[in-house]
Structure formats: C-alpha cells, structure tokens
Predict the structure.
Amino acid sequence: MALPPIPSSQQQVLSQQLANLIQQKIKQAGGWIDFATFMHMALYTPGLGYYSGGAKKFGIGGDFVTAPEISPIFAQTLARQAAQILVATQGDILELGAGTGRLVADLLLELQQLDQLPKQYFILEVSDYLRQIQHETLHKKLSAQLYKRVVWLGTLPQSFTGLVLGNEVLDAMPVHLIYKTHSLHERGVAFEGEFIWQDKPLKAGKLFDEVNECSLPNDYLTEVCPAATGLVNSLANMLKQGVILMLDYGFSAREYYHPQRNQGTLMCHYQHYAHSNPLANVGLQDITAHVNFSQIAMLYEPTSMRLAGYVNQAQFLINCGILDILAQHSPNDSEYMKLTAAAQKLLSPAEMGELFKVIALSKGIEEDLIGFKSGDKAHTL
C-alpha cells in the first residue's frame, strides 16, 4: 500500500494556521462542531482553505484530474448541449466554480465554431486564487474578443437566462455526517491534542426528518448535504428561463443508501493519494462526498422547474456526439490517438463513464435536451 505524500514545511505551517482557527471555532462552540462546519473551514477559509489557498489542485501536478483537464473533447462535446440551450433561450452561460478555466476556454472556442456564442460567459468564483488562474488560462487560450465576453461574479445574479453549468461542484459542498445506531447521531469534530470524531444525538428538525425517512439500518454512517439543496434552490429561484446542468459523481437515493454503503462516501485527495481521513492535513487536501441525485431531483417539484433528464456521463457524451467528433479525425492523425485515449477515460464504466452522472433541471423550455435523448434514467430517482 502506497504511503501518503509528506507536506512541505511551508504547507505544514499553513495547515497549522488553519488548524488553530478551527480549534478556536470548536472552543467557541463549547468543544464540538458539526462536520459541515469543519469541512467548510477546511475548504473555504480565505487564504488557508483548500480551494482558497495557493496550492495546485487540478491536473497532473495537482491532487486530482477533472474531465475538462483530460482533453478539449469534453468541452467540445458539451458545447453541443450548450448550443441547443443558447438557441432556445438567447441567453448566456453561468459556470459555478470554473477551476482552472479550461472548460470556459474550450467551450467558448467550440461555441465560436458552432456560431452560437453567448453574449456573456459568467463565472461565479469565490476563490481569489482560482480567479487568478482562470485569468491566466483565458489570456493564453482566447482572443481578446472572446476574453471580453467573460465576466467574474462574487455572488449569484438576481435573475438569469440561459445555461447554468456546474462541473464537480456539488461534491465539494459541506456535508453533515449522520450515524445510525438504535437512534440517530450527528458525527462532529472535537479537539483533544488533535482533531477527533465525536458523536452527539441528532436533534429534531429538518436534518433529523430527512435522515429518518431513509430507514437506515443500524451501524450505518452516511452524509446529508443541505448546502447542495440550498444552492440548487437558489439557482432555480434565479433562473427566468433555461437549464441548470450539473455533472458530478454520485447515485440515486436507492444506491446512495445501499446497505453495503455503511461507511458513507466521504473521500479525500492529496497529490493523487486517495484516503478517507478528512481530519489530517487540513487545508491541504480536497474533501468530497458523492452526490445524492434524488435529493437534487426533488427540488424541481415546488418550483416551476422541470426534471429534464438524468443519465450517466458516458450516455450524455454519446448523445451529444462525442463519437462524431472523434470520427472527424483521421486514425492516422497523432491527435486522434490522444482524443481516443481521452474519450476512453470519459466513457469507460471503469473510469468516469458510469460513476459520473449528469442531471438537468429546466424552466421555460419544452423541447427535449439532446444530452438525454437516449438512456434517460430520471425514473430511477
């Protein structure tokens, strides 16, 4: 078994600074905080949190590789779905958390080829560090005219028309950890010389009611993410006409709460080393949990949204024409081999094809979305 990488002395200093802040938070709260609070601080504390600090996160030299970093073919394929929505709404694109900006750049370049450019491409980015990386990426890859279409936001606009896009956003939302014995407990974090797990009885309320409805077996640990539902609710209220399109790894509720998934889905990544201890190296590692897509799908019911589709990533990309894009290249072309290898990673059930899902909620669009024309599994949610 491979040993985890050892942080540099500078990284250890920054991590300790963040750990001190979390210790203060625990002390102020009476000796215990819920895990959602811990996870939020570990990921988003300004200047010290994982997403707001300065370490490289995406790509080969980072902690993990997202689909846009693998190859431009991901964005080129996604652009077909984006173009359909832009034609239907005459709107813009709003991307949530744009990472390095690769998806922004590749989408705009492909939409230019399709003659379906949005007037503006908004990026909602809370990390100053990632904003800077995005600026650098777009300066390198885009013409001045295309670059002018990109607008950075610090908060959601009051209203929006077009495509709202979130690629691997929901998995990074802070989660509550719930442990079922003969009763329900919330697993939080205390400090006794180091961060430790500590369970408390779960109080009556929305969180209790939501978990209680799942009828979990005894000795079962799982995650609940009110932050994800809150975000999608805000997006639904903001959207005048268009589509909310989310791509992430996760399951329907039936799979999410499977009896064999009794240790939950919480996972950490540090320099491509995957493990399950979020209490170590705070601020230096990514912390994620799989998405409960049934929870997201239910949000359309009290709004004027429509559940427009739910498929795995492989089916979505095939529906959007990834194989046609490959066919445009000669098998003798060196670029063809690179694209084929990338497509294999994006489509293979053993890689990203099955675990990653795509869900769409639409408002004011009656036509079927091309990404869900075949293999739609919305009925499983």
